[in-house]
């Protein structure tokens, strides 16, 4: 079987391999990138019941020692308590720096396992096997790892590139629709910020048939993310473009206490709001917002949100893209064309309120 392969050249170099049925032969690919003999697979309970045996079985059959740590699914597990349990588990199983962690799951598993790999014994190899669309197009690539604090999401983290990303598109068959929709928010974002051809492809599909071309779509998204990460691995400039729609999205999620709306839907609303404003102020092509909205509708992402854009300004000021007295706002002037526009805080609040 010919799989799609994308090379990332960041502080660590690695490949992203995309295709169906990869998980069952994961050891064949993993053994090419690490000398480890002992593997600790980290996953959540839902993913474990679906794919745990396939991955552990493949590694055991290849002659490796395998242990597995399973935690309850959900964002609440991406915390210091789970992290400490992972460290204890690794100690109990005599995992050394020469060994390797395997993150099997969505972005929650990937982020916490990556952070454990960055910090346990001052750093060890890890491999990503993302099983949600969001993790396949976004979180497994680029080396951002983190856990949440009670004070906020992703507040403690590290840049740590994986040794390999194995994207098995078959895993999307078991993914509940709400999580497919969520991932599509990021897919539409990639088209908006960097790729008119991707956006045009999305305009010909719907949620019902997008999985048929999952490998093509994931390849395009990951190639865009690879280019951005290679240009700005440590998030000082270009990488900010990946946050199109996200500043408003975080405020919308905060408005709903992180329970009333999914991240993907909040990103969709954020992209729509900022594009509507940009268009009104002559910073974007006329008709762009309408085009974005009809694409979002195809993926059940065009949800109405309660707060008006003018109510979201204050919360936006806590955003990581604020620096001193200014904030960088990502604006798309047309499909596939994006830029970070630096605004003084006052000017930004005025921009939202007018
Ligand atoms: P998630 O990991 O919680 O997965 C969503 C749900 O789907 C979970 O309940 C999980 O058990 C289940 N699941 C996973 N794969 C499945 C499958 N194939 N079949 C059935 N069920 C499956 O959430 P997510 O949306 O994948 O990731 C969100 C996290 O990613 C957040 O914590 C966010 O901060 C992080 N993130 C990180 C980056 C980064 O660059 N590191 C980027 C974006 C998001
Ligand atoms: N998800 C944003 C980034 O990786 O930079």
Please, could you describe this protein's structure?
- It contains 13 helices and twelve strands.
- With 354 residues, it is an alpha/beta fold.
- A seven-stranded mixed beta sheet has the order 1-2-9-6-5-3-4. The chain has a three-stranded antiparallel beta sheet with strand order 10-11-12. Strands 7-8 form a two-stranded antiparallel ribbon.
- A hairpin with a 2-residue loop joins strand 7 and strand 8 (152-159).
- Helix 3 (80-92) packs across helix 4 and helix 6 (177-194) runs parallel beside helix 10.
- It is globular and about 65 Å long.
- The model has no long low-confidence stretch (mean pLDDT 95).
- The chain binds nicotinamide-adenine-dinucleotide (NAD) and glycine (GLY).
- Residues 44, 46-47, 50, 73-75, 78, 105-109, 111, 131-132, 134-135, 138-139, 142, 144, 153-154, 171, 174-175, 179, 182 line the site of nicotinamide-adenine-dinucleotide (NAD).
Main sheet characteristics: 7 strands, mixed
The averaged pLDDT comes out at 95
Structural class: alpha/beta
Terminal Cα separation, in Å? 55 Å
Number of helices: 13
Question: What ligands are attached or bound here?
Answer: nicotinamide-adenine-dinucleotide, glycine
SSE run? EEHEHEHEHEHEEEHHHHHHHEEEH
- Helix fraction? 40-55%
